[in-house]
Amino acid sequence: MTKASDTTLDRKIITFSLGQQTFGIDMRAIIEIREWEEPTPLPTVPSFIKGVTNLRGNVVPVVGLAERLGWEPSKIHSRSCILVVNINGKQAGFLVDEVADIVAIASAEIQPAPDVEIGEPSVISGLIRITVRGKGEEKEAGQMVLILDLDALSLTKHMDIAA
Amino acid sequence: MSDELDEIQAIFFEECAEGLTAAEAGLSAMKAGDADAETIASVFRAVHSIKGGAGAFGHVDLTAFAHRFENVLDEVRAGRIAPSSGVVKVMLSSFDILSDHVAFAKGSAERPNDTAALAALEEILKNGGAGEAGEAPAAPAAATVAEAPAPAPVEDEDPFGFTPVLVSLDDFDVVEEPVAAPPPADGDWIVRFGPSRAALSNASEPMLVIRELESMGAEIVDVDTSALPGLRDLDTEDSYFIWKLIAPGTLSESELLDCFDFVAPDSLIEITRCEAAAPAPVLEIETVSVASAPPVVVDDAFVPIEPIASATPVAPQLRVVEADDPGKPARMEAAAQTIRVDLGKLDMLLNLVGELVIRNSILADRLSPQDQQRVELPELARLTRQIQDNVMSLRAQPIKQAFSRVPRMLRDLGEATGKQVNLITTGDTTEVDKAVIEKIGDPLTHMIRNAVDHGIESAEKRLAAGKPAEGTIHLSAEQKGARIFVRVKDDGGGINRERVRAKAVERGLIAADAVMTDEEIDQLICAPGFSTAESISNISGRGVGMDVVRSNVEALGGRVEIQSVPGQGTSITMILPLTLAILDGMIVKLAGQRFVLPLASVVEAVRPEPGQVMMTTPGNEVIEMRGQYVPVKRATDIFGIADTRKPEEALVIIVESEGVGHVGLMVDTIDDRREVVIKSLDQNLHPIRGLGGATILGDGSIALILDIEALVSHPTAHRFAMKGMAA
Questions:
Q1: pTM
Q2: Cβ pair B546, B446 in contact under 8 A
Q3: In chain B, what residues touch A153 (CB-CB under 8 Å)?
Q4: Predicted ipTM?
């Protein structure tokens, strides 16, 4: 990994885990992180839409991100939380297993996504290696983060396909 | 500077739109035979305003056309041209051209070809008011005034006979000399007119008003220059003169007042009947100003007049006529009380009020029962509701605004297709959120075009089928619960299902051997791709732009329903949400979850006796209600939530639906009844069939609002079937 001083750390991402994977979402899209709270279920929607919740007067859909990406549904536990994001002016809450960190990264270091097998390759916009803080002897070890392309995850777009 | 000009110009175009609406309403009334003076005057005023504004912004073509149009209208107004059906027809088509000219000036359309319309108008002018327009008498003599007011003001030709005068200050005396001569005769009107500063800054030229008065036979007898300051203090933007004119007593007060239509309301306008007794002031519009005008201007203005009633019997009588005439007071009030507000600000206000309502009910829920009984809370709730109602009504506009373009379209389409179509409009006063009105314009256009193009048959075909030669389109709007139904119904041939099906197979939208119900085939006309056929006009079934209708309506969170009876016609209904509207709802529990039922559709609730609910076929139940059998739906049917309870343990709420009539919904309990703020699901998600939206309850949790109509009428979801086919 190149030294941080060589490149400008021009972006911040929030990293979180889904199962064994670590994902990142651009900080600018994050509205807030909230505790898991059972949403109001909706009829006739794909199973990855858990329901809707009240976010300061807005009715916001809650999405099981793991299911949306084609994996096993997340199990709800004490560190489960909802990442509320803004996708093209629409709000959505993503259920994630655990929020890890906020990391500054350099856009130049993001590698294009290989054709990852999750149905729609475009969902991953890129890969980046980050160093994980506070892990004792593993200090030097990097970790791969998949950066999500929120536009491609756009619920309404997907809804048309699902419906 | 140019920004400012753009802004002012934007206001001008808004006013144009209003003017055009008013003019069209007036012309339509005239077409229907209602050609009273006020109607004609309203059309005249509208066109006149457009001309005035267009002139100021240098829209030469628009000005020229409006001018010609105005000339004809003026002749009609003066009674020299009878508003016969032929004349009205020409005026209607001229109106269409005028609309196009406005669009052209706005830059949103090509310059219309107005040669034919201009010629037609000219023709009317020649035949109706022969010669008068061209050769005006030099000065309006008393004799001509008595029988008819002087001809239309045609600026170019200057009918008043004013010869260009080299203006020098001395000329003031020269001009004043002759007009000061005639003493007011008994019964003549004395008009005092002092334009305000505001009038001048609105660019209302006092000279035009005075010329108009003069054209009616009035003469200037005096100009009060006492307010005129010295040259050093002279403010070029202020007005210092008060003109005094004498008008013949044969004129009515309202005719005189008409001259002041465009004068800013805080100007001095006094119209007095000259009597043997001392003249009394009859009407002063002096005090009306934007800031202070009370809601009921008429009442207020009436009070000071009463004391003089005995002295001048004519005056109060006229005043009463004024008050009874709905057009005029409204106009005066409108001038005084309308302000333009940025829509964004209104939206912000509406959102905040919505929040306030929610907080209010959260607060109510948190308080102990005895605290809830105290006077402050209901008071607060009442106030909040009033604020909410008021804010809502700010955004609500009569759907008439969207319907107003239809008559014009029908005229155009009638011309293009040779089909004569009558329009019946109902419910055009239904109030809908402005955003909805703006967005249904396009779908409506397509629906109407379809109805005329493909729905209504040719006159020969209609006669052969035993129908009147003229087709009828019924345009209606109606509010039901949280939804507004906008329907275009024609009495044409209905959808030709074989052709539609064949076309859909050809386009690859469906498999050749697909089994489809009639309704599903009807829905095909909305399928994307169906309308893109290059030879669309060869298809006798429908299809032009119907996917536009569907996608626009769905984008609004609504849906489209199509009903067609071969040989009898087709009706296409847009079912739209009243976005952010308030819903009077019943909160019910269904399989443990809270839902809101629109109270408007609830008929009654019953707790069934054992045996009252019977199963007809597996999964289908009916309830016996006073000898009638009403179908019952369970949560299972609706949302696929397991529901195995016995009917006796549940409540059955009988709801009324447009499509199916009465239907029973089986629910667990009724929790509450309250007004809820509708939050649309499509704001962050997409519309879900069966749901009219969601709301936030007092405890902050979300309850889904049931859309009865969609729930009960179509157990199989069409839109999903459609999407599948389209994909």
A1: 0.44
A2: yes
A3: none
A4: 0.77
